[in-house]
Design brief:
It is a single chain. Helix 1 links the parallel strand 1 and strand 2. This protein has a domain of 209 residues: FAD/NAD(P)-binding domain. The termini are far apart. It is built from 17 helices and 18 strands. The longest helix is centred in the N-terminal third of the chain and has 25 residues. The radius of gyration is 23 Å and the shape is globular. It has 548 residues and is an alpha/beta fold. Helix 1 packs parallel to helix 10. The structure holds flavin-adenine dinucleotide.
Length: 548
């Protein structure tokens, strides 16, 4: 009771409280799960350790006040397929995406360039400069590969995974399914080398297919080649910054009676008689709940928060065997007076959402990725750059004006010489490399810089252990119904009341929203709550064709 003499200022958040659902982590997946379940009438609390909600949906002033940048997820790959964008009226939060026409360019040392655009025909025009045969092949392949993505892989992202044998039998029902099966057992390198003859075309294709962490030589992941190539031509930018999506989902949760606790570090999942009963947060509060949903990586969820002593043997072993991403990102953010201007044969490159430079051949690209896996960065590195303010001038709010861009490269968590020393050297090397492709990236053009190393990623997000942007590697044994393991891939875990629905759960990392959506579906079913949402048309088609 407030003291009547002082009067009521506000009700303190209780030391102990009761909820239907507590969600650990306010990244895209936690927010999506929270938005669906709070609208379904459940009492939901999202608990986030940072001051900012959004996880990878982060738009922050890391360089200098007035220069905002999307420090993590900027390329939104599945905007046209994510159910959350259709189920919620996010328009009322003024949420918009733009899909740049020039999607991904690659610039070579002699000024030649290649460009993937939204349109197959425009892309063919660009490839034609180097190989007519490759341009024709690209057109033919992409028409088939797009069907694989829109009919199968896209909708399957939001439907629980099938065991491999069931999947094979399901795919055998259709021509598109059989076409996908033909790719599965091949490696990205094999598919791309076989399909295209020109080395520079191969370099571009290999980069966009493997940049998110596929091992180019790994077999069993070939179905991702159509996915990533198609998505490389369909990336969207969230206008106002990625964080606006987090803001919109936050308002949905709050508007439906949910709560978001920020600056609240979950230190423990409480257990009674083998069942998860809630969480404790660092400041000492306890939130009791019917269901706990964790969006963190398996080691944090099961070992640090639940405790290995509560885990069945098989689950403990699978968490011990969890492999983190084979590489991380090192990103140099820059505020400049002018946007980067690429010295190349196609002015359209200057409008591209992503410009890759530094690589001349598949061999050089493979050598760079091999060095990264071995903990090194050699002089022949390359990477991709984006000038964000070209698509979103509002990111620059400084009276000095200018532009914000970044150059991002694959990098190891542990580097020879240590990041403290190598980070500084690398900043110079990145700018020199960038300048080769875009000569105006001179010291005079630069207003401010800020570099985020893999160590920095982990410091900001401890759940991205060792800078693992997807909370875990993409290998055949960590994909599909094996992500994070067979017991937990449908988001339920062997621990009653505990669910996992972050990037380490099927379908995986990046801002796909699949784990959060699937977690919400499973929890609604298990708590016997009516779902107010229905599968999208694409999902219904997939279910009828391949699941029923
Ligand atoms: C440099 C970089 C660039 C990237 N670029 C892209 C891109 O362009 N496109 C794309 O799609 N993806 C990109 N990603 C990947 C993407 O950001 C992630 O895969 C995605 O955010 C995962 O979503 P999530 O909700 O599962 O987890 P996260 O986004 O990791 O969210 C988890 C949340 O949990 C919080 N948390 C951690 N520990 C605790 C705790 N103990 N208690 C409470 N809260 C806790 C964290 O602070 C975080 O907010 C990038 C990532 C990085 C690092």
């Amino acid at each position: 009771m407030p003291d009547p003499l002082i009067g009521k200022i506000f009700d303190e958040f209780p030391d102990e409280s009761d909820w239907d659902v507590v969600i650990i982590g306010g990244g895209p997946n936690g927010l999506i799960a929270g938005a669906y379940l709070s609208k379904a009438g459940l009492k939901v609390a999202v608990v986030e350790r940072r001051y900012e909600i959004g996880g990878g949906l982060a738009t922050e002033e890391v360089m200098f006040p007035g220069y905002y940048t999307n420090i993590h997820a900027i390329y939104h790959l599945l905007v046209d397929l994510m159910p959350v964008l259709r189920d919620f009226d996010l328009d009322r939060h003024a949420l918009m995406w733009t899909k740049p026409n020039a999607q991904a360019g690659m610039v070579f040392e002699d000024g030649t360039s290649l460009l993937l655009t939204r349109m197959i025909e425009d892309t063919k025009d660009s490839l034609m400069k180097l190989s007519v045969k490759d341009a024709v092949t690209f057109g033919k392949l992409m028409r088939g590969w797009r069907r694989i993505v829109t009919e199968i892989i896209g909708p399957a992202t939001f439907i629980p995974p099938m065991p491999p044998l069931d999947m094979i039998m399901a795919m055998q029902r259709t021509k598109t399914g059989n076409e996908m099966l033909e790719l599965v057992e091949r490696s990205p390198l094999d598919i791309i080398t076989d399909s295209f003859e020109n080395d520079r075309v191969r370099t571009l294709m290999l980069y966009v297919c493997c940049m998110w962490g596929l091992d180019p030589r790994e077999t069993g992941v070939g179905m991702f080649v159509p996915l990533y190539l198609d998505r490389a031509m369909n990336k969207c930018y969230c206008v106002g910054g990625s964080h606006k999506l987090a803001g919109a989902l936050t308002r949905e949760i709050l508007g439906n009676g949910g709560t978001i606790l920020d600056a609240a570090d979950v230190t423990k999942v409480t257990m009674r008689n083998g069942r998860a009963t809630g969480v404790e947060i660092a400041e000492g509060r306890a939130l009791r709940s019917k269901v706990v949903m964790s969006t963190l990586d398996p080691q944090t969820t099961f070992f640090d928060l639940v405790g290995a002593e509560h885990l069945p043997e098989a689950l403990r072993e699978s968490v011990e065997g969890w492999k983190l991403d084979k590489w991380s990102f090192n990103t140099l953010h820059v505020a400049t007076r002018e946007p980067p201007r690429y010295a190349c044969d196609d002015p359209w490159i200057n409008e591209a959402f992503m410009v890759i430079s530094g690589f001349e051949s598949p061999d050089q690209l493979l050598a760079h990725w091999d060095s990264v896996v071995a903990g090194k960065i050699d002089d022949n590195f390359g990477g991709h750059a984006t000038c964000e303010s070209l698509f979103d001038p509002h990111l620059v709010r400084s009276p000095w004006g200018g532009h914000v861009s970044f150059f991002q490269m694959h990098a190891p968590y542990e580097i020879e010489g240590g990041w403290e020393k190598r980070g500084e050297e690398l900043e110079e090397a990145i700018l020199a490399k960038w300048r080769k492709a875009a000569p105006n990236m001179t010291p005079e053009n630069i207003i401010a810089t800020s570099q985020e190393t893999p160590e920095g990623i982990e410091t900001r997000f401890p759940n991205m252990r060792r800078g693992a942007i997807k909370h875990g590697d993409y290998t055949p044994m960590q994909l599909g119904c094996f992500r994070p393991n067979q017991e937990c891939s449908d988001t339920r875990t062997p621990i009653e009341g505990l669910y996992t629905c972050g990037a380490s759960t099927y379908p995986g990392g990046l801002v796909l929203g699949g784990p959060g959506y699937l977690g919400a579906n499973r929890v609604a079913e298990d708590l016997g709550v009516a779902k107010w949402w229905k599968p999208t048309r694409e999902m219904e088609h997939y279910i009828k064709t391949y699941v029923e």
